[in-house]
Design brief:
The longest helix has 20 residues, at 423-442. This protein has helices at 19-22, 124-133, 146-149, 174-181, 183-197, 211-224, 240-248, 268-280, 310-316, 373-377, 384-392, 396-401, 412-416, 423-442; strands at 27-28, 34-38, 48-49, 56-57, 62-65, 74-75, 80-89, 95-103, 160-165, 201-207, 227-231, 263-267, 286-292, 300-305, 326-329, 336-338, 351-355. The strands form four sheets. It has a six-stranded mixed beta sheet with strand order 1-14-13-17-15-16, sandwiched between helices. Helix 2 (124-133) crosses helix 5, helix 4 (174-181) crosses helix 6 and helix 5 crosses helix 6 (211-224). The chain has 443 residues and is an alpha/beta fold. It has 14 helices and 17 strands. It has two domains: 1-29 and 117-361, Rossmann fold (3-Layer(aba) Sandwich), CATH 3.40.50; 373-442, no CATH class. Bound molecules: iron/sulfur cluster (2 copies). One iron/sulfur cluster binds at residues 377-380, 382, 384, 407-413, 423-424.
Length: 443
Amino acid sequence: MNRLKTFSRGGIHPPDGKATTAGQPIKNAPLPARAVVPFSQHIGAPARSLVEVGQRVEEAQLIGEATGFVSASVHAPIPGTVKEIKSLYLPSGVKTEAAVIELDGAFSRLGKPIAQRDWSDLESDALLAILKEQGVVGQGGATFPSHVKFAVPKGKSCEALLVNAAECEPFLSADHRLMLERTEDLIEGIRMVQRILQPQRTVIGIESNKQNAIDALIPHAKREGIDVVPLKVKYPQGAEKNLVEAVLGREVPAGKLPIEVGAIIANVGTLISVCEAVRDNKPVIERVLTVAGGAIAQPGNIRARVGCTYRDLIEECGGFTEEPVKFISGGPMMGFAFTDLDTPVTKGTSGILALTAKEVNAFTQTSCLSCGFCVNVCPMGLSPTSIFKNVEHERLDEAASLGLDDCVLCGSCAFVCPAHIPLVSAFRAARGRRRRLSARNRG
Ligand code: SF4
Ligand code: SF4
């Protein structure tokens, strides 16, 4: 019997919560009358605003220019007038400036025939320049600018392009739907990234609970010489280092990126954005995300413009059936709790969850029981309890020496902890403090 591939250390099996959304087609959200467009929707330097209050903008117009090496451009998701430039906090805690655009005027692209670009003669540099121009970033959560990620550093080469189709976070099913509904665009996006990276091998790693997507992909993938590898359902199968180990059997060293072992990973939604950017000359002004959780009346996947509010999308999904006790932006394992329903959708918003009391862990935190459960499930081979004890006493250098920076913030340790210690939020906060301290020390 063919054993499904997976990573070797740790991992958990949380309830997957995908049944309410995975079987339904993606629907289109109404266009927002007002879009709040953050200039920092990616890892790296915020985009520099190119607009002023009172200025008219067209749909897809560049309104924020990438600055510095790691940065991404930002475009207007709707035509209209810039009413305000304001500061806001995103659920991740990032503070950013944002342009508030009020809809007026005609859409220049929506509903019009698309003039497709013939990219058959474009070389790597030209493709990377397009990804930069159109603001493509990783949509699996990390929001790393794609033109930087796909630029292989000198002295390294990409042996394997891994398509991350695991979508292992509970509740989220947007990538699953995209694989079913946009199969050809996904394959075209993969071919574009193959042109950039020239890998010897391309593999789609997909959890085996998406059999219909596996069936849809196989004929297209076969035609292009791409392998489709079904993976065991185990969280966090989609974390980059775990995917590399599962698919290639190689371990990415602590503190290093997958390119160290010849791999570059791209997520499904990102590859469809790559296809749209290159072929359709379309910047990232919309994305598909999952709206789910027990409190949502009609959970589903929805294509929404950047800048529309979480409130709009929840209403589009029928509102609440009962009062939610917790909201999460993203998935329940790695997402961020939020309270403000007027939070705007960004390029990195993979889901909006409204959870009921039954779905939320409402236990009281106690002291560590030294049970070792967290150590057993950590996919990075760390000792979360030891890291936590150092973080708790602000011994950040000791925590770092135990692997604080190698933690992928997957949440597996907190999920199994019988003492309900918020290990991941403590690690995330400690990393932030450490970064700020070292920035201060650098002067
Ligand atoms: S959050 Fe970090 S420490 Fe906890 S299990 Fe995941 S990788 Fe390990
Ligand atoms: S799982 Fe929780 S209680 Fe058990 S050792 Fe880890 S931190 Fe302590």
